[in-house]
Design goal:
Layout (H helix, E strand, L loop, with lengths): L2 H19 L3 H27 L14 H14 L10 H8 L2 H5 L5 H31 L10 H27 L7 H15 L14 H6 L7 H8 L4 H35 L3
Helix pairs in contact: 1-6, 2-3, 2-6, 3-6, 3-10, 4-7, 6-7, 7-8, 7-10, 7-11
Length: 276
């Protein structure tokens, strides 16, 4: 298949995945309300941290002032479904049902097929879950959120978010496709979820950890899913530091997607050996 036709195909897959999510408006509304509740709860904890013991709202903790820290909580809440922090087992389901054989027989990349669908899913949640959540945070926080300033900051954010989705997808893809070799692929998913929450910067910013531990945490792929795009959004990361962070994200995205493609090769051989 020629490149223009292939790109048109993947673009169509993105659109189809986006439209598919439109069928679940009620579920999205329920999720949006849940996100808003926990966003208020988490933001309140950060506000209490900054205002306790007479701390001024302009004070800085690990480089975050009160507005930036409150914004951090709302951005991480907005990213929950965009980067899909929770369990996602669409591929594992096709392996259990046998439908994966049809998917593998398609005349284009199996990995690219699912990646395009994931970008369509992410685009939907960015518009209908993430953006409304941020607007709710803007209205409920007295000082308002800290938004990216200028077109360069928005461009960096878009690039970072695109890479964050790729990193998250690669992890989820590897967990799903492990069902070719194990009957308990979902068990490892719980461990992955915990790692992203605590080592990706969702629960608290990684910059709140001890200074000696931060370089290690930022070198792991989990930081590229939550911490880096959120820091770019709130202005904690910019300029050369932001470009270096993007390079780290890009490296992990390439490595993990490459590993995912290699796993597909072994999975196809396994299907062929078993006569699938």
């Amino acid at each position: 298949m020629r490149l223009p036709a292939l790109l048109a195909l993947y673009a169509a897959l993105v659109r189809l995945a986006f439209r598919r999510q439109l069928a679940y408006r009620t579920a999205n509304l329920a999720g949006l309300l849940t996100n808003a509740f926990f966003g208020l709860l988490r933001a309140s904890l950060f506000i209490a941290l900054f205002t306790s013991s007479g701390t001024q709202t302009t004070a800085s903790i690990s480089g975050y002032d009160l507005q930036m820290a409150a914004s951090y909580t709302w951005v991480t809440q907005a990213l929950i479904m965009v980067v899909n922090l929770w369990n996602w087992w669409d591929i594992e389901t096709t392996i259990r049902t046998g439908d994966v054989v049809t998917d593998l027989a398609r005349p284009f990349s199996y990995l690219g097929y699912w990646l395009a669908r994931d970008y369509g899913r992410a685009a939907y949640f960015a518009l209908f879950r993430g953006l409304p959540g941020l607007l709710f945070g803007q209205l409920t926080f007295q000082a308002g959120l800290r938004w990216p300033e200028g077109p360069v900051a928005w461009l960096l954010l878009l690039l970072s978010l695109s890479l964050a989705i790729a990193i998250s997808f690669a992890w989820r893809f590897l967990l799903n496709i492990s069902a070719f070799w194990t009957t308990d692929a979902r068990g490892a998913g719980g461990l992955y979820g915990a790692l992203v929450l605590f080592l990706g910067g969702f629960v608290v910013p990684l910059r709140f950890f001890p200074d000696w531990l931060q370089p290690l945490l930022f070198s792991l792929p989990f930081a590229g899913i939550i911490q880096i795009p959120t820091d770019i959004f709130v202005g904690r990361l910019g300029g050369l530091a932001a470009l270096e962070a993007l390079a780290t994200q890009a490296l992990w995205a390439l490595l993990l997607l490459g590993l995912a493609q290699l796993t597909v090769v072994f999975a196809v051989r396994r299907v062929s050996v078993q006569g699938g």
